[in-house]
Design a protein that fits this description.
alpha+beta, 8-stranded mixed sheet
Amino acid sequence: MRFPLLSKSVALGAVVAGLLVALGSVRGVVEERQERRDEAEQNVADSLAASQVLMGPVLVRRCTETWPIEQREGTVLKVLTERRDFRLVQAPQTLQIDSGARMAPRYRGLFKVNGYEMTAKVDAQWADLKGLQAVPEHPGGQVSCDVPVVSMVLGDARGIRTVRVNMQGQTLAVNPGSGHPAQRKGFHAQVPEALLPAQGPLRVSLALELAGTQSLAFAPVADSTEVMLKSEWPHPSFGGRFLPAEREVSSQGFQASWRMTSLATTAQQELIKGAPLCPVGVVMPSRDDDVPAAGQPSTGCIETFNVSFMDPVNPYVLSDRASKYGVLFIALTFLGVILVEVLNRLRVHPIQYLLVGSALIVFFLLLVSLSEHLPFAVAYTAASSACTGLLMFYGSHVLGGWRRGLVFGAALALLYGTLYLLLQMEQTSLVLGSVMLFTVLAAIMVVTRRLDWYALIEGVRGAADTGRPVSTTAQP
């Protein structure tokens, strides 16, 4: 062969290109399994209950105003009656929610969905009922109103297990539907006129059992809102528009509390306007033509804060992150084989490179398949041990001895161990990866510092011209 180095470089380039295509296929498998997991979560949410949101309780009263207007038709003067329907909404002065969430996971095939069962004691208090007093807006107008109702908005009413509404020591009958124009899911209870105080405070207490999946949110619609949440789930993710004022997270669970006033949020103003709840994770744009009286810019929706019951050991996320290092794995492994080949005057065929690279690709496929049935750490250990053992056995024959094979296997084990650390240390993965690459580069430079590359290349060309091999590998 006239240009052996060029021919081998082209062959190795083709091998690497084929391995990158295979690695892309493995990542496609990971994405497909992740999509199926998302479908399983949606299926459970459709069958059980979706993420829950609690807003309220608030007092709502439907009213109608009628007023006369005069209309002249020729010489005839007619008196017509105009009408408008409106809602009076009064948020509580203080709102206290003491809640707990017990995890109740559900399964769809291989996929686990984090469901929960929440119990909450809600205590709301109004200083007075001036917000429910309707005043005519037109001359000669007369206003008639229905009895007030206690309204509670939920994210998914299918999750309701039990509800008890108590006012002034009396239990109220609960009816479906919140009565909110934009958030109809929930329940309401009519308030008898006899229970409405002529003046002074009004107190409503609720006992609620609710099921949901994935996350739980609250809307701070009161003048002063306090929420306490406890759960045995050790991996909460707090989000929404407000973070907890206090929180304690341990391996036994978490406890969090939120405290805020209406000065810090536009939730109460948006509630009175009949705005919908803000989508979780989406910041609604402000509207210049709609500014609340308190001077806060309007968001066009009711703000919430939430906690997500996330699973930090998501095998598909970790497998996808691992596969992103596949190119680095292949490059470092091939670089190690090339160094052994050069320093020991061996000849490793491109097909042998292809087999070594294929074993590296199979590792990622083993990882995602085993992690569906085993804990991720166990699946990673099994997949990496199998591939390391296989490559150590194969390398001992390709590289010319068991000692070189053992060194090759130890280097692969170090690579797999480093990759596992990269997956676990998400916040420091960049610095760890940078240090690892620097270490590898420094080691290569130290090992090859005395190597005469010109003499080596000339020796390879001379061996190719005479038809004799540079060296022979050990036979199995």
